[in-house]
Amino acid sequence: MAALFGSVATAVAIFGGGLAVEAYKRRHDRTGMALALAGAIDAWLSLIASREMIEELWASLDQLEAGRPNTFGSLIGENISFQTITLAYASQIGHLGDDLPFRVARFLA
């Protein structure tokens, strides 16, 4: 009877330990993903501010509303480094918890 109890206790301990390790890894994955996305979003906002994109858009508002073509120098060029970060985590945003997946997706859209 003691051997059976010992075997069951060992199996439960191994299973519980495995669950604890997985929960720990998932928490670190979520934290890393959240920090990477927050860094990319902060970099985008800094880029918008440094290129004065908002001012450029406001200055072009009359032309845009009149339907005349307009080019935006601050918007030219791709931001591959930021896209790489966000695309790497795009399939995992749902793991962030609370309303963060919605907020991140809304910002990135």
Summarize this entry quickly.
Keywords: Plasmid. It contains five helices and no strands. The protein has 109 residues and is mostly helical.
Q: How would you describe the overall organization of this protein?
A:
The chain is mainly alpha-helical. It is built from 5 helices and no strands. The model has no long low-confidence stretch (mean pLDDT 75).
Layout of SSEs?
Layout (H helix, E strand, L loop, with lengths): L1 H49 L2 H7 L1 H5 L14 H10 L10 H9 L1
Helix pairs in contact: 1-4
Total count of helical runs of at least 4 residues: 5
Strand proportion, as a percent range, falls in under 5%
Mean pLDDT: 75
> Largest sheet, described in full?
none
Helix % is over 70%
| Rg over C-alpha atoms, rounded to the nearest angstrom | 24 Å
Give the H and E element order: HHHHH
- Overall shape: it is rod-shaped
Total strands: 0
Q: Low-confidence spans: pLDDT under 50, at least 5 residues?
A: none
Global structural class: mainly alpha
Q: State the distance separating the first and last CA atoms.
A: 61 Å
Instruction: Indicate how many domains the architecture comprises.
Output: 1
Entry keywords:
mainly alpha
